[in-house]
Amino acid sequence: MATSARHPLRYLPAALIVAFTSTSFAANLTRDNGSPVGDNQNSQTAGPAGPVVLQDSQLIEKLQRFDRERIPERVVHARGTGAFGEFVADTDISDLTKAQVFTPGAHTPVFVRFSTVMGYRGSPEQARDPRGFATKFYTQQGNWDLVGINWPIFFIRDAIKFPDFVHANKPSAVTGVQDANLAFDFFAHTPEATSMLTHLYTVQGMPDSYRHMDGFGVHAFKLVNAKGEVHYVKFHWKSVQGIHGIRPQDIPTSIGKDWNLMSNDLYTALKNGDYPKWDLTIQVLKPDELAQFDYDALDDTKIWSTVPERKIGTLTLNRVPDNYFQTTEESAFAPSRMVPGIEPSEDRMLQGRLFSYADTQIYRIGTNYNELPINRPLATVTNNNQDGLMNFGDRKGDVNYEPSGIAELAQDPQYKYVQTPLAGTTQQQAIHKTLNFRQAGEYYRSLSAQDKGDLVTALSADLNHVTSETNKYTMLSYFYKADVDYGTRLAGATHADVSRVAAQAAKLSD
Ligand code: HEM
Q: What are the residues whose beta carbons fall under 8 Å from the beta carbon of 471, sequence distance 6 or more?
């Protein structure tokens, strides 16, 4: 029998391994120490009428294990569905990046987790919520995680606001129930969310299937080529299946029919061999092109609407994981997990995300979460990290430091982070080119008449929960500022005075 580097018997002499593994207990129920169980139905008792005895270690261990079966759910994106597949690169972009995952013809295994954002782990999969689209690429140069959503933008542009954004949108601290009144209290003070809210309340904001939505990296990232040259890129997964959402009037029936619609749809398709695909496209800007817009190109509330997209590969999902907990629940995606040739941009949201994910994962799963099968890179990990709770890594030898004249680990300067020019002093200032409303209006005007109507129906239904008149008029003024027709129709649907909305909108800067 071959023992892999990870096999639990790898520390034992080969002769012993053969002796153990040739004795098969396969058909027997065993305890965690591998010994057979005689009776899993009746606890050991002191006589026919006496109490249960403490020496029944099968009973005790079984209950102890059960008591600890849950790990904390993700603080956001708790409800999710995972699937395995592969990414095949098809276009030479070596002029942009040295990342081997993009070598034409390279096949890279992936694990994708789709999710909702605000609901609990067991919450319905249909919710007015962005959908997570997180992809872990197990590349030859280590794992790269592209942790995106189904929209090209986000609600806020600075990580310091993220906990507040989540608190306002998660269930109320008093009732435990989501409350549109609290959400819009936050959004009334967050004009940069106008474009994302407009996207969220469309029919596409309620995808009828994970297969029928796109994915976006949202932020700009840096691609770095072998010469050390930098380009800024945005990533877009384009659904080959097409985009399809649920209209407001169909939502109650569809939720009533199946709370788990999204998981069931994806897994049924995979089991039937109907493998969903997404093309990966990129938009590219040179560093000196970032300043050419009247918005900040590194503001994640903006799309690069005038920059062309080009296809660089295709993702295919083809396998349902056979253990939900060990894959979907224990998977840990992080925007900070990158490979040579891909680096973060200076986007302030992305910069906060670079810290937050690995931090929460150390808490949620444990210090050595990267050693779990779903998170472990296919590339060999060689470093001096050691110990910690549940460590089962392969680090060997007593030179657990660096530098060393005994067993030095090489470091290749070609993998140093790229150098970026800096300017100014430290500061705490909002970005200058906010342009909070224009892209929301452009998006509204791009919708069909039916989609505009559905957007107004869905958004006004939630705006009608806003109890503060000030918040209500502030929200309406944002939408009016984005587009007069949009704001007027929302004012009508929320019984508001449109002239007051217009007057308030007139005071807003672009
Ligand atoms: C500063 C802003 C943000 C912070 C601090 C933040 C933080 C977090 C945290 C703590 C998690 C849970 C991770 C885990 O337990 O494994 C998470 C999950 C996630 N976030 Fe964010 N997030 C931010 C913004 C965003 C944005 C802008 C996107 C989309 C581009 C996004 C997409 C996701 C996705 C898809 C997941 C679920 C990953 C999975 O399936 O496991 N987040 N986020």
A: 184, 185, 188
